[in-house]
Amino acid sequence: MRLETRRHRRRRRLLQGGLPPAWRALLDERVPHARLLDGDERERLERLTLGLVATKRWEAARGFELTDEIVVTVAGLASLLVLGLPDDSYRDVQAIVVHPTTLVLTGERSQVPGLVSDGPMPILGQASQTGPVVIVWDAVLDEVRRPGRGHNVVFHEFAHKLDLLYGLIDGTPPLATDEQLQRWVAVCTDVYEQLQRGEAGAVLRSYAGVNPGEFFAVATEAFFDDPVGLRHEHPDLYGVLAGFYRQDPAARVPPPTA
User: Fold this and answer.
1) Cβ neighbours for 96, distance < 8 A, ≥ 6 positions apart
2) Is 103 in a helix, a strand, or coil?
3) Rounded to whole angstroms, how far apart are CA atoms 244 and 26?
4) What pLDDT, in 10s, does the model give residues 145-197?
């Protein structure tokens, strides 16, 4: 008979006990988008958050200490992306590693075909096919304290994991129909080319023009963190993202008061 490990016991207790009240308060405080959800969406967000906390391996780098605040905030933000997607959308996420502050990559790498760099590169997060999702905590804190700017490293890196469900970071996550795929390619190509020409407006930051994978991740940041701005500047792009994520975050934002 297989003995139950400490990790498995903790996972079982969490899943059986439901989201603790203190964690629910953390979602309200650190995931400002959660306050805009309706009752069913909020219930699903809490269930998905609990599932990520309980079933994934969480690690802290450089002697950093993981707290409930860190884990619940990252899990809550990541769960927001998949409210309308299948429960197993993060099936390829094995571990989440949290660093206290900006990382610097070294060694050869390429983000643009045919262009290789080996200079030091500061990053706020990272996602790959087989490795963990890497998140920098001080960037997360800055972004949740000042939402609405279209920047969120958790949205960005977990969008890469959705993109990778087909095995490649190519800016095309799993889509339901051929018609949806054709519309996705046409719209995203058009906005991507606008970025290349410097004509895409202010909501999508220029990093979206590095390659199609980064385009999808940056567009996801804007879709969830500045949905009204994205819908205004790029209604077609907003529409295909809403079709994929099966959400309409702009509709949740209260109208400005007179």
Assistant:
1) 52, 56, 57, 58, 59, 74, 132, 133, 135
2) strand
3) 28
4) 999 999 999 999 999 999 999 888 999 999 999 999 999 999 999 999 999 99
pLDDT of residue 103: 77
Calpha distance 247→210 (Å, rounded): 26
Where do we find the tokens 């197993």?
A: 88
Higher pLDDT, 106 or 102: 102
Q: Given a cut of 90, is residue 9 above it in pLDDT?
A: no
- Please give the full DSSP string across the chain, using - where no structure is assigned: -PPPPHHHHHHHHHHHH-S-HHHHHHHHHH-GGGGG--HHHHHHHHHHHHHHHHHSEEEESTTPPP-HHHHHHHHHHHHHHTTTS-TTTTTT--EEEEESS-EEE-S-EEEETTEEE-S-EEESEE--SSS-EEEEHHHHHHHHHSTTSS--HHHHHHHHHHHGGGTS-SS----SSHHHHHHHHHHHHHHHHHHHHT-S-SSS-GGGGS-HHHHHHHHHHHHHHSHHHHHHH-HHHHHHHHHHHT--HHHHSPPPP-
* Among the listed residues 247, 214, 230, the one whose alpha carbon sits nearest the alpha carbon of residue 89: 247
> In this predicted model, what pLDDT tens digit does every residue of 221-237 receive, in sequence order?
999 999 999 999 999 99
pLDDT at 4: 44
Please give the structure tokens belonging to residue 135: 């998140």
CB–CB of 97/135 below 8 Å? Answer: yes
State both tokens at 165. 């469900």
Q: Residue 233 carries which side chain, given as an amino acid letter?
A: E
